[in-house]
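Practice problem 4.
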């Protein structure tokens, strides 16, 4: 996508952007830079409200590994086209230009140098003001209607007319920040296919009876989601055991599958040893060296509370010297540590999830402009589209990218 500055010859387009999340903010800025006369509308009192809670207040903006294969999307070819138009470098360069320089962690997660989501939201707001974008805050859009010359945006009894409208109203995740799905039925009513919206990137609930000792334990693990014994998703990441189930990126990345399938016969399987499996097996079976208690060997990899709990599950006293372990005990301990199972009961729902799955079917949206193929002059950006990325900056990346493309398309 080329940077869009108006030639000055085409008539100025009046553009409404519905939603001031990351997608709407980018859309408004790109539409204004493309020469549009832009109004951004949101139910919230301030722009960029959801940005404030991202990355635990640090705002994980994008990822070094952004690529279509990392996302759940029905049409990877469509997504690839979108991502190629506005790359990570384009995004980082643009963020830098509006006062948001970034850095990457060793594993490729990008954050603002300030490590402050507040500073990011403030920079976006300042850019809106400097480009002359009109803000209509504390206003709920109740409808969008095509007209002979463009589209009307309905605000209860008022109808405002625009040439182009960008819908960046988000999904249903974290409704306390304003995204409640109130426009989803309206989009469907305009003739768009709209896939059912479900929690994604949500903590997973599980049967934790007898597992109280695990509460608060955090570690990195390989996680597999299974249904009737068959793997339906796998990931590696940080997990935290809780009173009601498991939290953390390691399970959140799989949570959209909990809703895509039924929870009947669904389980989580953890390899708690990750890449240390071979080492522990060797340490438990090796006859040389100190005859250490089994507790010490397991604790050399796992948190002590977790090590004791796992030993208790296979009835091995924690003080048992290595030489006194039978081959059968070693094998049942290794089995427990590499295939620890929990029964899945659901997810924590919209209130606790970071994004929702479902939304506007992407095949009805032009990947080069984000314009609807059903309603001319209507554009979509961000989470309202049926695309979900994993934890790590992928969802903000998608929101920013589609916002930039839609804004430029709407002004063009
Ligand atoms: C706790 C939390 C942490 C997260 N951390 C990260 C992270 O670090 N990195 C990452 O990549 N992603 C993260 N995400 C996901 C990320 O925030 C979303 O992917 C992103 O906000 C989606 O942007 P959006 O602009 O499409 O939608 P939203 O941010 O949901 O914005 C939609 C806006 O539209 C407005 N709106 C909705 N309906 C109407 C209406 N009828 N009238 C007027 N306005 C309306 C809403 O008020 C809202 O402001 C996190 C999410 C949460 C909840």
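Answer key:
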């Amino acid at each position: 996508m080329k940077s869009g500055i108006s030639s000055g010859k085409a008539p100025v387009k009046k553009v409404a952007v519905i939603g001031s999340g990351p997608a709407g903010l980018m859309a408004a800025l790109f539409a204004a830079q493309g020469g549009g006369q832009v109004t951004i509308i949101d139910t919230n009192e301030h722009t960029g409200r959801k940005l404030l809670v991202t990355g635990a207040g640090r705002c994980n903006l994008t990822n070094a590994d952004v690529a279509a294969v990392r996302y759940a999307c029905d049409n990877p070819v469509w997504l690839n086209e979108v991502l190629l138009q506005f790359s990570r470098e384009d995004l980082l360069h643009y963020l830098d230009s509006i006062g948001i320089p970034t850095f990457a962690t060793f594993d490729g997660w990008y954050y603002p140098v300030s490590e402050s989501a507040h500073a990011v939201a403030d920079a976006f707001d300042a850019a809106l003001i400097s480009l002359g974008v009109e803000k209509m805050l504390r206003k709920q859009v109740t409808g969008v209607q095509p007209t002979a010359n463009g589209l009307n945006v309905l605000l209860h009894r008022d109808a405002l007319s625009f040439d182009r409208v960008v819908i960046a109203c988000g999904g249903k995740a974290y409704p306390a920040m304003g995204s409640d799905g109130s426009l989803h039925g309206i989009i469907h009513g305009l003739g768009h296919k709209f896939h059912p919206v479900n929690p994604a990137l949500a903590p997973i609930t599980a049967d934790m009876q007898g597992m109280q000792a695990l509460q608060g334990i955090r570690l990195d693990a390989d996680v597999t989601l299974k249904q009737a014994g068959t793997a339906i998703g796998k990931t590696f990441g940080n997990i935290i055991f809780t009173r009601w189930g498991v939290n953390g990126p390691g399970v959140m990345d799989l949570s959209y599958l909990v809703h895509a399938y039924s929870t009947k016969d669904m389980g989580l399987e953890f390899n708690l040893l990750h890449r240390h499996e071979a080492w522990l097996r060797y340490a438990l079976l090796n006859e040389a060296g100190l005859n250490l208690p089994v507790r010490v060997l397991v604790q050399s990899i796992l948190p002590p509370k977790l090590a004791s709990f796992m030993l208790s599950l296979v009835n091995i006293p924690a003080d048992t010297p290595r030489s006194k372990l039978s081959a059968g005990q070693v094998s049942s301990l290794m089995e427990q540590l590499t295939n620890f199972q929990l029964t899945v009961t659901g997810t924590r729902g919209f209130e606790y999830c970071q994004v929702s799955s479902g939304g506007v079917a992407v095949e009805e949206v032009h990947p080069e402009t984000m314009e609807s193929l059903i309603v001319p002059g209507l554009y979509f950006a961000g989470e309202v589209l049926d695309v979900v990325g994993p934890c790590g900056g992928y969802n903000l990346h998608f929101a920013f990218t589609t916002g930039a493309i839609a804004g430029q398309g709407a002004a063009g």
